Amino acid sequence: MENVIVNYLEKPDIKDPILIEGLPGVGNVGKLAAEHLIDELHAVKFAALYSKHFPPQVLVGENGVAKLVNNEFHFVKSSDKAQKDLIILIGDYQGMTPEGQYELASKVLDVAKEFGVKKIFTLGGYGMGKVVKYPRVLGATTTDELVKEMMEYGITFPKGEPGSGIVGASGLLLGLGKLMGMESVCLMGETSGYFADPKAAQAVLEVLTKILNVKIDFKELEMKAKEIDYMASKLKDLERTMTEGQEEDLNYFG
Amino acid sequence: MENVIVNYLEKPDIKDPILIEGLPGVGNVGKLAAEHLIDELHAVKFAALYSKHFPPQVLVGENGVAKLVNNEFHFVKSSDKAQKDLIILIGDYQGMTPEGQYELASKVLDVAKEFGVKKIFTLGGYGMGKVVKYPRVLGATTTDELVKEMMEYGITFPKGEPGSGIVGASGLLLGLGKLMGMESVCLMGETSGYFADPKAAQAVLEVLTKILNVKIDFKELEMKAKEIDYMASKLKDLERTMTEGQEEDLNYFG
Amino acid sequence: MENVIVNYLEKPDIKDPILIEGLPGVGNVGKLAAEHLIDELHAVKFAALYSKHFPPQVLVGENGVAKLVNNEFHFVKSSDKAQKDLIILIGDYQGMTPEGQYELASKVLDVAKEFGVKKIFTLGGYGMGKVVKYPRVLGATTTDELVKEMMEYGITFPKGEPGSGIVGASGLLLGLGKLMGMESVCLMGETSGYFADPKAAQAVLEVLTKILNVKIDFKELEMKAKEIDYMASKLKDLERTMTEGQEEDLNYFG
Amino acid sequence: MENVIVNYLEKPDIKDPILIEGLPGVGNVGKLAAEHLIDELHAVKFAALYSKHFPPQVLVGENGVAKLVNNEFHFVKSSDKAQKDLIILIGDYQGMTPEGQYELASKVLDVAKEFGVKKIFTLGGYGMGKVVKYPRVLGATTTDELVKEMMEYGITFPKGEPGSGIVGASGLLLGLGKLMGMESVCLMGETSGYFADPKAAQAVLEVLTKILNVKIDFKELEMKAKEIDYMASKLKDLERTMTEGQEEDLNYFG
Predict the structure, then answer these.
(1) Residues 179-218, chain B: which have Cβ within 8 Å of A?
(2) Phi, psi angle pair for A29, to nearest 5°
(3) Is the bond preceding C198 in cis, omega lying within 30 degrees of 0?
């Protein structure tokens, strides 16, 4: 079989679209953000990407129907001239090996190129190792001009961060995309990395939607964030109970 | 060499056959079931599949003759119009890597397609982590209609199970087969997962033979199940002896 | 680069040769045996096999000159009609991955086929987990007839052994060779597996030279065996000293 | 995508160049040496090599601009007839798998061949497991003549070292280059292997520049060496403080 297979449901009539990637990663920030964007903008699935670089696995839905793990392309056709058409990439997994990650990112860019993509936003989390109350959005781009442009949207470019670079699809689409003549921005929401982090996803989306000149509702993400906060506070209580009478250590969720 | 090689002994004259897969896995349920079906239906081996995705190994028979590890295709030509022709896949191993599993499942489906297969049953175990007296048979399918149809045979589709999906050949044949236009059902017999489990294999076969409208004898499987039960009870005795005088803990085989 | 490269120094004029394989493995029995055979029969190197499935490594000789790790083909042109021409395969490594092992064995068989090989002897060790004073030679073959033939040379075919089959080149050449119409015998000398084992290598060669109808000297191997025995006895003394006053346990070298 | 991609910025007009490799490795000796050589000789980058055998990663510069991890080719056009043109290879990583290392070395040699390279120097460290005050430069070559020639430059060829051979690009370029008719020398500076080691890099460069008949300044490397020495002495002090009152153990940095 081919290493990566793209199955089209339709070939949407979109012009000069922007690619937005949100695959699983640190705090699932990118995935949460991209899925929320798809819901809010009523994006339509138009292609699925299967690969032997994913786990050899089907997922079984509540109805008992199985689905091979994949990545999916959705599109948004803009109705407003001030907005751009979008392709949004989400998925169950990233590639399981370094080689697989390259193959997959390369195929995603082939699809992007076919639809005339010239600009990419990759979404992800930036692991802080502690709970972040007001997550900032960190950035990395492929050109100096984009750095300046992004700073105007309040995106932070701290010197020497991320020190270890950006690993996975969010990094590769920038790097390989650049080789194919595409401009890219990676947006990373600060997150503890302990939980799926809807708050960080919202921080990323608030910036992204400004850039894209679209308006979306954040209620769903806010509700998810409250659920996570509630679970975290329960864990904190539990920890407190267990350390009672001992020297108190609240650093973890401090 | 090619990644996967299919060596034909003959090209059987079968029409519209159903593919049944029983490769090694949890409790070896699928393998035990498929091998028993081959014995009872006097299925005939017609092809062997070799691959560099299997271990680099020969198995040596009691006679001193070595055989490269493989998967094997057997066929059953039905003599009754109320029954369908069958292709039954068994084997020594599944692929050793995720990529290998995809390659192998893809080749199996190529063979299936060549013979006009439109429906697949994959057989496996569902690990419960404890001994199961009366194993149920859980199912997953590729269409809503099949879920309904299978429920009529007493197959269980518990919501949200298996939570981690189905990994390996039993899952991939469903997932990749769907992409090739084949309908599939995965039948999973509940099993402790501690031993090879002929009882779970029998549970799976009792359902499958009803669906296939064939009658087979279960004596062999029942004898194997008794042997396993005997061994398990011996181990339980041993455990009891060793924990005597201590707080008794029989959960393991409880 | 190609996965496996064969570099010929010459294409020897040999007829209907027998292939003998002795690559590194348990107790290095096969390698020691094949290298000794090359020395004693003055076999001539005619080809080297390089591959990305070997470690990415050069070995540096005493003269400071580096050599890429490889496998090597040597040939013996028989001068006696009662003897057959030989191709002997030795090497620094076996393939590092299962897939690599298949690729390498497949290429070796391509070379063998080119020279008209119809019979293969693979040499190896059979790990006993304890020191063996009088190592037997165990066998596995690709046909019933060969089992009978080999038994006449004193080769042992114990029922159900080796239980785990034969892994690596010694197994694959049998298995893949059979698919290409070649007959094969694997000869395994019993060995502790703790050390390189020249004694087991000699046991294997004593049988093999009878089969091949050639006579060779074993002095070199006997000397190596004495060195190993000396080292083993020194280790045993050391162990005795260290356990003095304690309950004595000589099982390990018993 | 292709396994290895070479992107040219220009095709330099160089004649009969010598290839010098300095990729990351033990004590980063080769990388430090090659980067220093590039700085001092004002070498010009002319090509970048990308590969799925590198980590799936971008590095982010201080300006916020991301760069896909790669290896880079630089060239030096000699202005003096007594000197040769040079190609210098540096990079962020070596290949992550054995197969990847072979693929990458093979592609580097393809590039080298295109520009008529007939001689290669690979630079690396030789790990001693202890701090070395006056690092020697060990050598390995592809011919006896080169051993003699290199000895005249003070390069050491200790019998039986490196016992484990040379692993990675520095070894493979020798081994694979030889198969392509290129002569090579590996220069290894003795290093503790605990730190990046500019002193070992300088030792290697002092010999290499003599061979190449070029003169360079070593101030930068000497400053880096002082920084490392300072850090090492601070660590030593710390260790001394922590073991005060205890039996002193200064072996580590002795």
Answers:
(1) 179, 184, 186
(2) -60, -50
(3) no
Residue whose structure tokens are 């058409």: A85
Can you tell me the distance from the alpha carbon of C166 to that of D39, in angstroms, rounded to the nearest whole number?
55
Q: Phi, psi at residue B64, to the nearest 5°?
A: 90, 5
Domains in chain D: ranges and CATH: 4-243 (3.40.50.10900)
Interchain CB distance below 8 Å, C56 and D171: yes
- Say how far apart CA D221 and CA A75 lie, in whole Å: 54
Straight-line distance from the first to the last Cα atom of chain A, in angstroms, rounded to the nearest whole number? 50
In chain B, the residue whose alpha carbon lies closest to the alpha carbon of A68 is: B175
Report the C-alpha gap between A218 and A241 in whole angstroms. 34
Q: How many helices (H) and strands (E) does chain D have?
A: 6, 11
pLDDT for D250 equals 45
Could you tell me how many residues make up chain D?
Answer: 254
Residue B55 touches partner C, C-beta closer than 8 Å? yes
Asked if D60 lies within 8 A of A140 by C-beta distance, the reply is yes
- CB-CB under 8 Å, D1 with A142: no
What is the complex's ipTM, to 2 decimals?
0.90
d(CA B248, CA B254): 11
Tens of pLDDT, residues A86-119: 999 999 999 999 999 999 999 999 999 999 999 9
Per CB-CB distance under 8 Å, the chain A contacts of D57 are 165-167, 171-172, 175
Could you tell me if C147 and B65 are in contact, meaning their C-beta atoms sit under 8 angstroms apart? Answer: yes
Instruction: Say yes or no for a CB contact (<8 Å) between A165 and D57.
Output: yes
- For residue A63 the two structure tokens come to 């109805």
Residues of B178-199 as b/e, b for ≥16 C-beta within 10 angstroms? Answer: bbeebbbbbbbbbbbbbbbbbb
Please give the radius of gyration of chain C, using alpha carbons only, rounded to the nearest integer: 19
On chain D, the residues whose CB falls within 8 A of the CB of C5 are: 179
- Which residues 81-120 of B are in CB contact (within 8 Å) with C? 96, 100
**A73 close to A87: Cβ distance less than 8 angstroms:** yes
pLDDT digits (tens, 9 = 90+) for A37-87: 999 999 999 999 999 999 999 999 999 999 999 999 999 999 889 999 999
Mutate to test the interface with A, among B164, B179, B184 (most CBs of A within 10 A): B179
- How high is the pLDDT of residue A253? 42
Q: Which residue of A has its CA nearest to D52?
A: A99
Q: Which tokens in the block code for residue A30?
A: 């990118």
How far is it, in rounded angstroms, from Cα C169 to Cα C29?
Answer: 13
Q: What three-state secondary structure class fits B196?
A: coil
Tens-digit pLDDT profile for residues D156-166: 999 888 888 99
